[in-house]
């Protein structure tokens, strides 16, 4: 019986110790080791740039009458002209171009000459007042770049009687495209 008592005591001790350990776990939350870390990247945002143009004479004709010359009463040898400033007013670089559209030229093409030059004197177009496909205006314009263009219309000195009472009109279309 002694062996049984000894075994019973061992089992009883183990049972009591196990019960005490189980009670301790139930009462005291365990701590399980492990490290953690967090990092953030706040404030992410983007915004689209702009491509806008400013035209110093927007909505108005560039070629204008002067004190010495009435553009609507020209005679052979007269030259009517004007200047316009075009600015890449947006935040993006742009490739700029110019087209002549809406031409209504009732004057013989050889008697009326349209010339458009940039501020450096480079000719963008010279020829009859007619529709002209878009022509590139040089290198890419950075945001804020401004260029001045002179537009002249000449009723050539050799214009004949057939030019009397005729007229011509045209529209300058400035165009910018994101580079």
Give a verbal description of the structure.
- By secondary structure, the protein is of the alpha+beta class.
- The protein folds into two domains: 32 residues; 126 residues, Immunoglobulin-like (Sandwich).
- The protein is built from one helix and eight strands, in the order αββββββββ.
- The protein has a five-stranded antiparallel β-sheet with strand order 1-2-7-4-5, with no helix packed on it. The chain has a three-stranded antiparallel β-sheet with strand order 6-3-8, with no helix packed on it.
- It is rod-shaped and about 145 Å long.
- The mean pLDDT is 88.
Observed structural traits:
alpha+beta; 3-stranded antiparallel sheet; 15% helix; 8 strands; single chain; 2 domains; 179 residues; 36% strand; 5-stranded antiparallel sheet; Immunoglobulin-like; 1 helix
Q: Output the radius of gyration.
A: 43 Å
User: Termini, distance in Å?
Assistant: 102 Å
How much of the sequence lies in strands comes to 35-45%
How would you write the strand order of the largest sheet? Answer: 1-2-7-4-5
Q: What is the CATH C-level name of the largest domain?
A: Mainly Beta
Q: Note the total helix count.
A: 1
User: Rough shape?
Assistant: rod-shaped
Got a strand count?
8
Helical content class: 10-25%
H and E order: HEEEEEEEE
Low-confidence stretches: none
Structural class: alpha+beta
**CATH T-level topology of the largest domain:** Immunoglobulin-like
The average pLDDT score comes to 88
Largest beta-sheet details: 5 strands, antiparallel
Quickly count the domains. Answer: 2
Would you identify the CATH architecture of the largest domain?
A: Sandwich
């Amino acid at each position: 019986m002694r062996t049984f008592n000894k075994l019973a005591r061992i089992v009883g001790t183990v049972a009591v110790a196990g019960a005490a350990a189980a009670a301790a776990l139930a009462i005291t939350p365990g701590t399980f080791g492990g490290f953690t870390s967090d990092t953030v990247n706040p404030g992410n945002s983007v915004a689209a740039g702009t491509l806008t143009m400013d035209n110093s004479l927007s909505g108005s004709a560039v070629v204008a009458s002067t004190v010495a010359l009435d553009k609507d009463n020209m005679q052979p040898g007269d030259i009517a002209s004007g200047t316009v400033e075009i600015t890449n007013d947006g935040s993006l670089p742009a490739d700029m171009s110019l087209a002549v559209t809406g031409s209504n030229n009732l004057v013989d093409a050889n008697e009326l000459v349209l010339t458009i030059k940039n501020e450096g004197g480079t000719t963008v177009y010279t020829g009859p007042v007619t529709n002209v496909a878009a022509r590139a205006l040089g290198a890419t314009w950075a945001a804020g770049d401004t260029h001045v263009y002179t537009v002249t219309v000449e009723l050539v000195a050799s214009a004949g009687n057939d030019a009397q009472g005729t007229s011509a009109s045209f529209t300058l279309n400035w165009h910018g495209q994101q580079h």
